[in-house]
Amino acid sequence: MRNLLAILLIFSMPALFGQKPALNLIPRPVDVQQTDGSFRLSGTQTISFNSPDAKMIAGMFEQKISKVAGYSLKLQKGTSGAIRFNLNKTEDGRLGKEGYSLTVTPGNIELSANQPAGLFYGMQTLFQLFPAEIESSSRVKADWTVPAVKITDYPRFPWRGLMLDVSRNFFSKEDVKKYIDDMARFKFNTFHWHLTDDNGWRVEIKSLPKLTEVGAWRVARGGHFGEREAPKDGEQATVGGFYTQADISEIIQYAHDRFITIVPEIDVPGHSMAAIASYPELCCTKDPGIKVNPGSNFADWYGDGTFKMLIDNTLNPSDEKVYEFLDKVFTELAAMFPGQYIHVGGDECYKGYWKNDPGCQALMKKLNVDNVEKLQGYFMNRVEQILQAKGKKLIGWDEILEGGISPGATVMSWRGVKGGIEAARMGHDVVMTPTTFAYLDYQQGEPTIEPPLYEGLRLMKCYSYNPLPEGVDQKFILGGQGNLWSEQIQTLSHAQYMTWPRGWALAEDFWTPNEKKSWPDFVRRVEAGFDRNEIAGVNYSRAMYDPVISAEVKDGKTIITLESEVPGLDIFYTVDDAIPGRYSPKYSKPFELPEGGPVTLRVISYRSGKPLGHLIKLSAQDLKKR
Ligand code: TNX
Q1: Which of 109, 294, 321, 415 is least enclosed, having the fewest CB within 10 Å?
Q2: CB within 8 A of 206, min separation 6: which ones?
Q3: Does the CB atom of residue 606 touch ligand 1 within 6 A?
Q4: What is the rounded distance in angstroms from the CA atom of residue 393 to the CA atom of residue 262?
Q5: What is the dihedral of CA 431, 347, 361, 366, to 10 degrees?
Q6: Mutate to test the pocket of ligand 1, among 162, 195, 347, 486 (most ligand atoms within 8 A of CB)
Q7: Ligand 1 in contact with 485 (CB < 6 A)?
C-alpha cells in the first residue's frame, strides 16, 4: 500500500507542478509533443483493430497487459476501442515501412502505421511510456497510466542490427530467443547470427553430418580464451552444441514474430577450423590432426592487422570439392532462412597455406594472377554464384573488397569506417559495423575492472557514432550493427552485460535523426533503462559511471587526469591508501602523484552523496604505463 502511495505521488508530482513527466524513450523518436493528462488502463477497456495484421499486434499488446496487470481487455474489430491499432488505408508518406504515429489522450490510445512493422515499433514505444513494471514477466502492482503524447516516428536506417557469435561459445535456443526479445524492445530489425568459426559449427547440415557430429564439439577448457591449452591426442570433445534445422525454424519464426530478419553467417574461407576438423580434405594441408579449437592460441598477430595462422583454418580455393561442399551447405541454409541475405564471412583469411599449395599455384596460373589475394576474390565470386543460384544475396566482411567482388555484393565494414566508405564509393550497399564504434566485445569501462580484452569502447563513443560517413551517398548505407564476439563470453547474462547499455546507444545511432541525439538526455534515459532491466531481469553494465583515468609523465612527475562521461558526478580519490568516499579529496583538476615511495591511486564516483561507480585501484607503475 505504501509503495502504491509513493508511486501515485511520484506520478502526480509533475501534474501538481504543471510539468509534463520526463519520457524515457530509447531510441528517441523523431517527433514528440507532450500534451495534458494521461490515459489510465481500467481493465474494462476494449482494444480495436482494423485489419487481420493489426489484430495480430493488438493481440500481442493484450497478452502483455494481461500478463503484467492481470486485466483481460476485450479485442474487437473496428476503430472505436479505447485503444486502437490501425493500419493506414491510405499510406502516410512520412512513416515509410517501419514508422508509426502514436497519440495518447486521457480518453484513447491510437496507434497507426502503414505496415505491421510500424505498429510493432509503435507498440514498443507505448510499452516504454508505461511504468517500468510493464517489463515484469509476471503480474505486478503498478499505476497503469500512460502520459498524453503525440509521437511521429520512423527510422533513419533500414538495417539496424546486432550480431551474436555462437561459435566461440554456444548459446542455447532459449538464450538466443531472449537476446532477440531484447533487440525487439529497441527496434532492432536484423539479427546477424555468426554460426560457424574455428571453435564450433552450430547449424545442422543434413547432407554433411560430420559438421555437427565433429565440428560442434571441442575439448573442455577454462581460463582466458586464446590462452588455453590445445587439444591433446585422444582427448574427448565434450563442450559445444548446435541447432537442429527444427531449432533454426523455431528461432526464425520467433524472430519473424518480432519483425527481426535473421542473417545467417557461414564464415569462409578463413575461420573454418571446425569445418576442417570435420572434413580435413577441405583445406590445403588436409591434416587429419586438426581439431575444433578450444580457445588456444593458433595465430601470430603482428600488431598491424597482419597475422600468420599456425594451424590451417582456411578452405582450399583451388579444389572443386570445396565448392561442392559449399553448394550443399548453402542449399540447405537457403532453404532454412527466408531472408534475402546470407553472410559468407571472408574476414581474416590467412593465405600462407595457399602460397605453398600446388593446386593453388596451378589455379593462379590458370587465372593469370600473381598474388594469393586474388584467389580470395575468385573464391568469393564462386560463392556468390552459388548463392545467386539459390536466390540469395551475398554479404561479407570488408576483406571481400580486396580480391575483387561483384557490384551486387553487400559489404560489412568492420576495420574502421574506411572499407565502408570505399565500398559505397564503388556502388556497393554497406552496413557499418566499425570496431571503433560498434564492437560490443570490447571493454566498456576502466580496463582493470572490466573483463579482460585487448581494446576498449565506452558508451559515450558508441553514442557518438554517425553511421553515415561524410561525403557518402546515404542510399548506399543500409545502416549499422553492433557485433558481439563471444571469445570471452560464456553466458547469456554476460552477453547482456556487454550489450546493454551500448546496444541502446547503437539503437539510437541507427534509428534517431543525428540532430535529435543528445548525450546528457541519453544518459538520463539509460538510467531509467537500468531500472527497467532490473524488473525485466536483464543484465547490463554500469561502467559508464567509472571515470576515465589518464596519466601523463612530465619532467619526471606523474600527472593524473580523471574525467567523467556522465554529467554531474563527483569523483573522489585518495593517494594515501585510504578508501575513497565522500570525505576524501574531490577531483577538480589534474594533480600530481606523490613521489618517494610506492603509491596507489584509488578512485570512485558518487552522485548526491551516494557511490555509483566501482572502487578503482591503480599502482603508480600501472598509471605510468597509460
Ligand atoms: C575480429 S570482426 C574478427 C572476429 C573476432 C573479433 C574479436 C571480424 C570480421 N573478425 O573473428 O572475434 O575480431 O574482437
Answers
A1: 321
A2: 245, 332
A3: no
A4: 13
A5: -10
A6: 347
A7: yes
Phi/psi for 583 (5° steps) reads: -100, 0
Distance (Å) from CA 165 to ligand 1 centroid: 10
Is this prediction's pTM over 0.85? yes
Across the range 254-272, mean pLDDT stands at 98
Task: Report which protein residue has its CA nearest ligand 1's atom 10.
Answer: 347
Q: What are 153-172's pLDDT values in tens digits?
A: 999 999 999 999 999 999 99
> Known catalytic residue: 235?
no
Task: Say which residue the cell 573483463 belongs to.
Answer: 451
- Whether ligand 1 lies within 6 angstroms of the CB of 347 is answered as yes
For the Cβ of 397 lying below 6 angstroms from any atom of ligand 1, the answer is yes
- Neighbouring residues of 197: CB distance < 8 A, sequence distance ≥ 6: 165, 167, 168, 267, 271, 273, 274
Write the CB contacts of 585 (distance below 8 Å, at least 6 apart in sequence): 572, 573, 574
The model's pLDDT over 316-372, given as tens digits with 9 standing for 90+, comes to: 999 999 999 999 999 999 999 999 999 999 999 999 999 999 999 999 999 999 999
Which domains are present in the chain? 24-153 (3.30.379.10), 162-539 (3.20.20.80), 546-624 (2.60.40)
Apex 544 CA angle, 541 and 550, nearest 5 = 130
197 is catalytic: yes
The amino acid present at 589, given as its one-letter code, is: K
Do the beta carbons of residue 73 and residue 66 sit within 8 Å?
yes
Tell me which residue has its CA closest to atom 12 in ligand 1.
485
Active-site residue (options: 98, 194, 204, 271)? 271
**Is 13's pLDDT higher than 80?**
no
d(CA 338, CA 255): 12
Check: CB of residue 156 under 8 Å from CB of residue 95: no
Kindly report the three-state secondary structure assignment for every residue of 11-46. Answer: HHHHHHCCCCCCCCCCCCCCEEEEEEEEEECCCCCE
CA of 93 to the centre of ligand 1 (A): 40
Q: Whose CA is nearest to atom 8 of ligand 1?
A: 347
Distance between CA atoms of residues 76 and 64, nearest Å: 17
Count of residues for the chain? 626
414 CB under 6 A from ligand 1? yes
Q: Is 94 helix (H, G, I), strand (E, B) or coil?
A: coil
- Torsion, Cα 228 232 236 242, to 10 degrees, reads 50
Segment 219-237 shows an average pLDDT of: 97
